[in-house]
Design goal:
Order of helices and strands: EEEEHHHHEHEHEHEHEE
Strand content: 15-25%
Shape: globular
Structural class: alpha/beta
Distance between the termini: 20 Å
Number of strands: 10
Largest sheet: 6 strands, parallel
Length: about 200
């Protein structure tokens, strides 16, 4: 049973971007290109895109008549081609290596092919339980992804610890009934059960 700050949990449920790895440079480069193509305010979009499925962000900022699926596909292709500057969050390799396969999962808003590319870029394994954008009908802040991961691990979401960095992800973890460890500066520390900068 994995333990964090002397508390045992049934499993750890990790977000990916901003939590296992920092892909913000690549994410923001691609979204800025997309905003330039469509005359969309990049600062407004970047302020809210982290931790949210790409198609949901496209839908939120879409111009009249925009093909949501086609634009989401363009974004995914652009992100697949850009892994420059993606780095692991300090200490995550040692933490993951100490967990059994049934003790952890990843719940990401990224499509599976992009998530695998980013995990490979930093040398982290693809977990046995890997919930990606395609696996849910409602993305974060809906708790569906975390509940699905817990179910696939055979545990209750309420007995898990979620690691998240974004407002949407923290809201999803809380809505699933899990304890939440906030990673990094995007969410106020008091919003979580724990607040950490890395895993060292």
């Amino acid at each position: 049973m994995p333990s964090f700050y002397n508390t045992d949990y049934a499993a750890f449920l990790f977000d990916m971007d901003g939590t296992l790895l920092d892909s913000s440079a690549a994410v923001e480069r691609v979204w800025r290109r997309w905003c330039d193509r469509h005359g969309i305010d990049a600062e407004a979009l970047i302020a809210v895109c982290h931790g949210v499925r790409g198609e949901d962000t496209v839908r939120r900022f879409a111009t009249p008549g925009m093909d949501i699926e086609a634009e989401a596909a363009w974004l995914n292709a652009a992100e697949l081609a850009d892994v420059d500057g993606i780095v692991a969050i300090d200490g995550i390799h040692a933490l993951i290596e100490g967990l059994a396969p049934y003790e952890w999962a990843i719940v990401t808003s990224a499509p599976r092919n992009l998530a695998e590319v980013r995990l490979r870029a930093i040398g982290l394994p693809v977990p046995d339980v890997f919930v990606t954008a395609e696996d849910v009908t409602q993305g974060k802040p809906d708790p569906q992804g975390f509940r699905l991961a817990a179910e696939r691990l055979g545990v209750a979401a309420e007995d898990c610890l979620v690691f998240e960095d974004s407002p949407a992800g923290v809201a999803a973890g809380k809505a699933a009934g899990a304890a939440v460890a906030i990673v990094g500066p995007r969410v106020a520390a008091e919003e979580g059960t724990y607040a950490i900068t890395d895993y060292r």
